Batch of 3 targets.
Target 1
Amino acid sequence: MSTYAAEHHHDDHVPTGWRRWVFSTNHKDIGTLYLLFALCMLFLGGASAMLIRAELFQPGIQLLHPDLYNNLVTNHALIMIFGAVMPAAAGLANWMIPLMIGAPDMALPRMNNLSFWILPAAATMLILSFVVPFFPGGGSQINTGWTLYPPLSLQVGMSMDFLIFAIHLLGISSVLASINIIVTLFNMRAPGMTLMQMPMFCWTWLVTAFLLILVVPVLAGGVTMLLFDRHFGTSFFDAAGGGDPVLFQHLFWFFGHPEVYVLLLPSIGVLAHVIPTFSRKPLFGYKSMVGSMLAVATIGMVVWAHHQYTIGMSLGAVTYFMIGTIIISIPVGLMIFNFIATMWRGSMTFETPMLFAVAIILMFTFGGLSGVMLAVVPADMQYHDSMFVVAHFHYVLMPGAVFGLFAGVFYWLPKWTGHMYDEVLAKWFFWINVIGFNITFFPQHFLGLAGMPRRIVDYNVMFTEFNVVSSIGAIIFGLSHLLLLYIVIKTIRGGKKADAKVWEGAHGLEWHLDSPPAFHSWSTAPKAIELTDTYEKPQ
Amino acid sequence: MSAEQQTEHYYIPDPSPWPVVGMVSLLTTLVGAALAINGVDIGSYVVIAGLLLFGYLLFGWFSDVVKENLSDCYNHQVDTSFRMGMIWFIASEVFFFLAFFGALYYIRNIALPWLGGDGYLGTTNELLYDGYTPVWPTHGPGEMGGDFIVMGAWGIPAINTFILLTSGATITWAHWGLKLNKQNHLVWGLASTIGLGVIFVILQAYEYGHAYSDLNLTLETGIYGSTFYMLTGFHGFHVTMGAIMLMAILGRSLKGHFSPHNHFAFEAVAWYWHFVDVVWLGLFIFVYWL
Amino acid sequence: MRFLVSGLARWVVLFVGFFGAGSVYAEYGVNFPEPASGSAQEIYDIHMMTMRVSTLLLVIVFAIVFYSLYFHRKSRGYKADQKFHDTWFGHWSWIIVPTLVLGVDLTIANNANAVLEKVWVVPDDKELMDVKVTGHQWWWEFDYLDHGVKVESRYVPKEDSGDLYLREVDNRLVLPVGTNIRFLHTSADVLHAFWVPELAVKKDAIPGYVTETWVEITREGVFRGQCAELCGTWHARMPIVVEAVPKEQFLAWIDERNAAKAAAAAEASADKTWTMEELMAKGEELYNTKCGACHQVTGIGLPPAFPPLKGSAIATGPIDAHLDIVIKGQPGTAMMAWGGLNDLEIAAIVTYERNAWGNNTGDLVQPADVKQHR
Ligand code: HEA
Ligand code: HEA
Ligand code: CUA
Ligand SMILES: [Cu+2]
């Protein structure tokens, strides 16, 4: 298969058929694969969310056995985070980073394909873990939630092992993808582009990739210990042998907290392009943006235990973790501020990506502020493991991560496909989506405050009303994604031709390429004049 | 660290089957492993099939790379990409080990004092363990795995430290040979490094055997056994992988694949070997000695 | 539809009432219930404070964004100010904004710290009353260490609890008001978390470790909470009900429990040979409360997690093996060791299991057999 001969090719022969996708070494194709995979996973994870909400629609156990319910919760979280959001962000990175920095491709194209193809394998393992208990001798279901805390996870049957291996695979995939991105950004920038002139999306991914390389292996280590405790008689998480179940929580959250910034940052990067474009004004505070991102990443690595305030840490420890966590509002606040200042005195128009951007600023701030409330230890004694936390993290995850990806998809879809999407339908999608989202998750704050724990399949009648509202919202919200699917398919299949520079206010190298760009783009480095067309020059 | 020198075209390999083969092999291996550890018989065969496929993949992938390299597809920039890739890969490995070192730290400095009734949470000991005093090394209040004897630092482990440090020197020596374009010097340096690595693994295996049969120190020996075997075991695994990689490099050296200016593969393996070295130093200090 | 309307109505009330007067939301179940302990009150206050601060910040952000959205739009002919980031504000905002945010942060942290210390540090009090709280899959065990009384607390099925289903238990945790009480949390199997919102103590129960919290209950009443840490299948069925009573009443209750315990012990150790009917009746009751959650009242279990006892090899095989697993449990599974039950109770349960649901072994296990087996 390998053509190692001196046949140096820029003869632009596009491989065809299934080989083009399966054997691909082209960043655009791999990016597309990532995005399609993420879309499938969004629907799979969303389907489990719909089942969860259907079960919670009324008190009582209607549809799901409790273990099945919690298995769905587990899968929902893992599929959404590892299957939908991270691959979608990686898809954007694959597509856009080489275009933005004027590189011919990712630095390590074959490895790029490997990091993608591991994902379907991981998804297969994950789905197997769900299916195995339905077979005789398959053991019990994974009823632990995505946090997999022992000793509960030690009680689960063999499906847990499938899940552990799935996590290993996901970890390998993320680490390889991150290595590739870091190397690309360091080594493949167009001549003349310094780090501090990189488009902001590249910066966000650089920091994200660092975070991933540093924390994902720790998760892998943690679940490996779990595996050994389950099968090989070790006692990492067993007090009788001198271990401690809480150790797992530390390992998990040492990964888990930075992970939430992994989910957040790429979307922040998208915003840093969308908002200037539609405000027709340079990004406010490029340097402080880079600085705050580095600060978020650094502080984010050392505050993990705010997920475990209730495990009986010393006063000193909780005080430290509390203050550290609250302090994160400074860099994140600065980012939000920079976005607002970019819009300020801009000349704004409101195409769909911009609508999402504005919604993100408003709703992510909301979620972030409830995060600061959670960070306050004594108050978290009440909030912890209640629906309030569920409300918090969906308010940061949906706007902070998913909506950012939606914004990115609408922003770049014309570039990828060469067709304009249907703006009217997209606006409909936006409004239904955002309103549905708020109806779904806003009431969960009250449920939590009133005392409803999370991860319960059945609840007392006093919690009925808000759950009903939330479930109805979820149906609206869920169905709105069918509209998204329709819009995307429609755009791929045709539509108004898009210019190279799709948006009036857009700047950056990617807009100097045709829409869609040639199979191999930037095989010669961009010209100096193209390089200066950037909003991201330091002030 | 910038890309001023983008003079020639960056080499983009043609479509390649290896990534998907990699996916299939990993999936097969892990599905097999999940079945095998749960006592499903076909599991182990599936694992073996997966591993064979994985071996085939490594072989195929790297031969492609070698061929591309020999036919001068790579320019300086590609070389830099490879180097950076390797560095960040090692960084991720460092953090993998950090998880285990972190676990050891946590157990020794937080969990055990807690079990022993130290400080602000004295009631644990009072209520549940009634006077149990944990002293590292321990197998916990439940005395998991029965009485055991601790692995001393100054026998085989000290010898092993010496061996690994020496091997770090020999590989550097080999690198000099390569840079000076002295084939013999290079080959002997590599061969002795491999020899030392193999001796290390053999001694380690002997030590495990000794621990299992004479000291009653097993994976099941409470938290001491757990951390001991996990840390040393993963390290030993890495040494084995490193030694195999060194052998491949030796083979390529004998074929004269490397030139004084173009030998990324050699350097990557050398870095890896140094990394394994450093981890061992950490192990020697925190697992055996302190 | 009714639900929807009332749900929306609550929601509207909430928007109005959330951040305003204190009493409105309490009625609507959209905020913490009325605190019943000193720390709960303080926590409530800090919660309200952070919420007000957050609301204020949110209003500011919304106001600026909406102002900008309205005035700085192209359709109104607004020309972008390309030099905005070059003004003094553009140059210094990176330090101004963080300073302001830091100010707010420190205010929050400072207030939180004061509360935290009070909540965290158990008062040094000779009269401190210790209650050991052990989480089990899926019931609570309350051990009044100073009074020698133990209470097992389980959820009450819907038929008997009605609207309080999942918020009602068979045996409540009775506590005196005006006393410093220290809870010592631990677990017999997996993680659980003790949470009663009115008392505001949530702490994880960790197997093999003990964590602690303390409260001083300030008013009488019945306070309901739930297990807050996912603990497996019936995590939703671990309610906690605290009944706070005056001290004298509490002591009277303790005496009553002690008397009942003595009577039960006497009955168990009496050299009596029990008849099948007696043991079966006793066994059925005990089995249904203690074992029914997993093995089900019908004995068919919930496979694959919980094996059926109906027709099970152990429940119909040798008695010794059966006694063994009941007394010692099965480590690593949800099957705990039930050796804490007295001989009579174990005898009754085992007899029942061996003869109910068509397990007609005819075996009759006497307390003496259990005693001998131990
Ligand atoms: C994208 C994901 C994401 C993001 C960005 C965040 C951001 C934050 N999160 Fe969140 N969080 C999650 C995802 C995320 N979180 C998830 C998934 C969980 C639950 C996991 C589980 O248990 O399953 C969780 C849980 C969680 C907890 C644990 C709760 C519990 O279990 O008891 C806490 C506690 O401290 C917390 C805090 C915070 C804080 C302080 C931030 C901060 O970064 C927020 C900073 C942002 C702002 C503050 C708003 C903007 C700033 C301004 C407008 C300036 C002015 C502000 C001030 C002066 C305060 N989060
Ligand atoms: C990026 C992450 C992410 C995303 C996008 C979502 C999206 C959603 N989540 Fe997610 N959720 C988590 C991460 C995420 N969640 C995590 C980490 C947890 C914690 C798990 C744990 O406790 O362990 C959690 C837990 C969680 C719970 C709490 C369960 C419990 O504690 O008992 C609930 C309940 O309402 C919920 C609901 C939803 C809903 C309705 C959506 C919706 O946004 C989904 C919308 C999308 C779709 C619906 C897909 C598209 C459409 C279709 C499939 C078409 C078919 C539609 C219909 C039939 C209507 N989630
Ligand atoms: Cu006990 Cu949840
Ligand atoms: Cu966090």
Target 2
Amino acid sequence: MNGPRRIPGREAITVKGWWPAYRWLILRRFVQLGILVLFLLGPLAGLWIVQGNINASMVFGLVPLHDPLVLVQSFLAGHVPEVTAITGALIIIAIYLLVGGRAYCAWVCPVNIVTDTAYWLKRRLRLKGSARLSATTRYWLLGTALVVSAVTGVIAWELVNPVSLTYRGLVFGMGAAGLVVLAIFLFDLLVSERGWCGALCPVGAFYSILGRFSIARVSAVNRAQCNDCTDCLKVCPEPHVLKLPVYGADTGASPIVLSPNCTNCGRCIDVCTEDVFRFTTRFEKTHNPIPTLAEETPS
Amino acid sequence: MDKSRRRFFSDAARTAGGAALIGLGLGLYARKSASLPAEALRPPGALPERDFVGACVRCGLCVRNCPYDTLELARFEQSIATGTPYFSARDIPCEMCEDIPCVVACPTGALDPALTNIDDARMGIAVLVDQENCLNFLGLRCDVCHRVCPLIDEAITIERQHNARSGKHALMLPTVHAEACTGCGKCEYACVLPEAAIKILPQRLARGAAADHYRLGWEEKRRAGESLVPEDPEHEYHLPEGLDYDHSGDGLVPEELPDTPFPDDPLDTLNQGANP
């Protein structure tokens, strides 16, 4: 490679300024850590806004929230949950149908900070090489977790789930859960780039399935202005979701990122100097101009 | 075309194989996690362990609602199912709150909302495991386990027994009655010994079980108000004249007539002198 290495997102800072180039990343970290702080205010400051942890909680002693995947496992394990749990799960499902299924991954999940850091460090240290894992592996793991729950009568994934281990660790005391977090960090850093969130995590797989129907979406609405810098693909945790919406204009593909794997992290919006992306809904009418004959003819 | 198809199937088979392997590992681990160590007690109202591990979502709301910080969530490295609530009686026992806030807080019913009277809780059973070191068994009046029991004189009574060592004192023995004991653990917590002589054990370890068809005769008699079997008739021997029955094995023997060298009047014996 010749010349200085292009660092994704650098150009956006010089072109758009610092805040627009980091806005969604900062908002996202703010929400992610804010939710954690809400959980910690109780045990650390005696301010009980939220009780419980990410699996199930009670807001102001009134509104129940409940992880739907845990509830599904519990049901398969042979337990019929109380109304409180079902209500909590329906509220969570409604929220993610609104804001995007895998918004959970980008805006709430604590492991996301760990894997994002691993990815950032890998780039910084220019570590090459990565085991390729199929992005569909997570669905297999999700199915496995459900089958094991049904067969053993135990909420199986919760025995090892790094997401809830981390959260429970932060709110109730870490213990050896810290080693699991470290293992995921090292796995992403040294074994498989974006391996955990991008290929393996069954929780992400579950929220992907919700995301198939969710409303809030990123759209490459100004894709005509794309200058092919590919920064968006480099910062995207699931680059395959962007390819068609950004580059698929001539195939008639919608500019709306409809892939259920998109986490609605909004980092593509940040790093794009040409303002190709913005948040919208999946229902927005996109005028997909039929390419003219002249455009279709290869030059 | 054929090649890509073959590749698709081989990839799918590889992933399925990996998933099956992980599933097997996870399944074995899940099975193992369902066996609770004896020293870990579940909160009041907890479903039987096999159901509990399928019902508890490890949210910690019971922990947060316990006013005495009794409950903890199992950490990853412990041999209790990850994230599930438990308590150790010797550290902090259950204070048996009347409103049972932990059960009220449980969103899933893993702690059964049907439990409304804390005296009905069955977290375990107190067992006086070490009669060699229990001070009361040594003849002292410690009585602490009896005194702290929330169901004093029901779950733990003091039973008197003869002290054979001193020959003239009583042993005042703390005695647990399983039908009243909730397993709160206050006795284990309060035991004055460096290692508690009375411990809360899970039902499966603490109790035997009588066979269904066993009946206690005296209980049946009390319930019926009379004996259910006819009284034993007085045993009668009908032996031939002049014969007796020897129970040590000789069978029928001639009747033993009073055969003694002494005359009926003891004075005659005395008057006989040294040489009869």
Target 3
Amino acid sequence: MSDDSSGFRQDPVGALRAWWTDAERADRLVYTAIAAVVVLLTVGVAIGSIGIRYVAGLLVLVAMYSLLTTGLNVQWGYAGLINFSVIAFWGIGAYTAMLVSSANSPLELGWHPAAAIPLAIVAGTVVAVFIGIPTLRLREDYLAIASLGLAEVVRLILLNERQWTAGSQGISGIPVPLSWLPFGTRTAVLLIGAVLLLAVYLFVRRIHRSPWGRVQRTVRADEDLAEALGKDSYRLKMQAFVIGSVVMTLSGVLYVFYAQFLGPADLLPLETFYVWVALILGGTGSDKGALLGGAVIVLIREGTRFLSGTAAFDLLQTGLEVVGILTHINTASLRLFAVGVLIVLVIRYRPEGLLPPREELIWPDAKRRAEVSGDRSAHGDAPGAVAEPVPETGSDDEGEEK
Amino acid sequence: MVAQLIVNGIVYSSIIVLASIGLSLVYSIGNFANFAHGDTMAVGAFVALASAPLVQAIVPGVTIAGFPLWFFGALLVGMAAAAVVAVVTEYVVYRPLDSSAIGLLITSIGVALAYRALLLMQFGPGQQSYPVSRGGRIPWVESALGVSVTARDVVIVFSSIVLVASLHAMLQYTTLGRKMRAMADNAELARVSGIRTGEVIIAMWVIGAALAGAGGVFLGLDTIIRPRMGFELLLLIFAAVILGGIGSVYGAMLGGFAIGMAHELTPAIPFIGTEYNAAVAFLVMIAILLVRPNGILGGDAT
Amino acid sequence: MSTGHAYDGADVEKPNPVLRVDGLRKSFGGLVATDDVTLEVERGSITGMIGPNGAGKSTLFNLISGFYEPDAGTVSVRESGPDDDRAGDGDDPEAGWHDVTGMKPHRVARNGLVRTFQTPRRLEGMTVREAMMVGQTDQIGESILPLFTDRSAVTANETETLERAHDLLERFEIDHLASAPATELSGGQLKLVEMARALMVDPEIILLDEPVAGVNPTLARKLSRFIRELNADGQTFLIIEHDMSFIMDLADPIIVLDQGRVLLESDPETVRTDERVIEAYLGGNA
């Protein structure tokens, strides 16, 4: 899809039109579906059948999850790192914010909540480097286990070192930045979420469509090859790991502004896998896909909660009780089941996700400027659309057939 | 005091070893990291529990050294159930999938969540125990060695030894065992030399899951039964397999022993509370991996 | 440039070597894969390496390129001097040598030694030209900071890389595939891309690992032609190959490896008729 940020500024309508025509049919379907959902929600709020506060809360959650999937996308989507410690970094961000700013924090620092962001970035970086050093040289499945284990270690520390973290009791109450604005605290949180998400999105888009993004994708596809071409794969993986982890910590900061309470029980390993489903469903390696994934996860959460509140569900429960199977079905177990089945189905039937990555990872300004043969080459055709018919496999006359 | 910890370690290790073998089999024959293995243990534990009333009715109320016979019946039911579930999953989920090892890994996470959800829906989230008396310590052991050993401990360790020995015999002396080892070494070669790989894979699931189920029952016997039990142990099982070296079932046994001991010996380490048991065992794994990235007995991964 | 001497372990001088391997040794478990190998590759040559299966050719390649760490011995690469011919002209005959022994592959590559792989790697999710552009060394945009602080430099660098990629693809007569997904290419086309990409690195020496394995004769001839053309421009090659007609036709000198040792290094005709070589192929280990 042509991606022309300066083109957009000069001619927004034209750029949008070009974007739509360039989009794959499957993508267009997804975009239409998204638009439909947005319209439905807006109408629902306008006519009063859906509370605006409820929607605002949902949007904050979408921002939070989208930040998590975006962070994971940098690690897994760009660089191929299997990281099962997503929730640990979320927790680091959340606890950093709470510990420095909350009035009830055991550390009793009482700093301004805006300090939470840079501090969370620092904390995330330090822990990521610490975890990365022993694990990034391991093969991918070892990294998976190591990250899972280290997440558990983080959780245990947060749980047991009561004098620093208040342990299982948790910490409540944190002032929200920008709450002096006339719209109230909730709107302030929403605003912060939107700004964080936008800033992160623009950041990752820039680093993705660049030589850096390209070399990361090479490391992901074939580390030996990347090394043979002179690329320091360890250093590159560390960069992706740290950046992704830092983005995840920001998600945690956002969360505490929203939820106003935090405890070690919030660091469910399950949440890590929700983020994984979200990313795979949205589109591994795709920045837009990561955002979509975040929205879909919130949809699933709310969907299962909604479902278990319906009369149909009550009927199901009664029926099951009569038969004597699955008598303990509830929101939590239903959600768990839905996510499990979803993972299996997505990997089986659409492993590339809803919005798979389509663009070449070439610096946009260079693509525009380069004088290369053929109109299409200059526009940067998507890998999904082949420029010319590729000669049959086994044929050797590449030079002669065109 | 340390002697008691060692005894605890032996009991706990038995559980880990049983689980590690199954995971290692899937790693070397199926070639992927099966994250549903922990929850397979839970399946075994719960089905054994659910079958208790039925088994008790059928099996004579005899006790072996103070331990009820019906329990072994329930154990077998649990193992069988785990095996059946694993085979069904193989046919429904894994076989139709044409995916990389990483794709299978992620799929197995979905499977794990589905198992756990079904257990939750069927049995609820609470803790449960087997209706076996929490028997007292065996007196003569206590006076002779100064450590407390219960009937449960003996059952766990003894049964594990029997199961592991049977597995060893099967691997070394039967045709199936030879086929499994061949496939573990080199699947392509095995297929080309005529080994029906489909059969071997089913055997892998049956044996691996049955042993996991047994491990789950023993874990439930040793500690408690609840839907999260398997996932909590998953980390340690993986640590054991990785430590022992991927692709080596015997390495997995060694690793299982090492991890289990490390876990129970944590109280012997000053300054670290028992809440950090899992963390210690895990950090032991990381430390060893730094020195020997292929594990203790691991060669190149097959 | 033929040496004409058999290797007896004695150093045979080459006037301007670009790669030097000295006493290289590697064992796996009890098996000695590389047994005290010493050799030199002359700059500007197409040097071939042959030997029966299990002779240790791939192991040697992996040792040289940094994918294996040797138990003993050294590997050195010499950078080309300003006149692109010989470093440290006259003053110091040993100038310009970089010891790359035991370095990680990426550092060996950055010292000017690039290798290809026997099975061409299909790069998931990339177009051919993206796959090419990765080969370029010292890309400013591969670091994150300049992407924000020095965008014009990144643009200039990337534009040049993109144009260079297209030029090389054109030279290999596959520029029409520039925007095609790398995964859709045939094996033969991938081999061409691999070679083209090696050039993007602008290396001192290219190690080709069985470039025509499983390739039909027409493509093999084409590859041979490209190698010769590039060599005429000054590119040095070290090629492992099993295909005798391909390598005899193209390379001179040819090093023969057997059981981890250098058996002989000489011109194709001498190698072809040497008794020891014939015996090595027909003997126990073929």
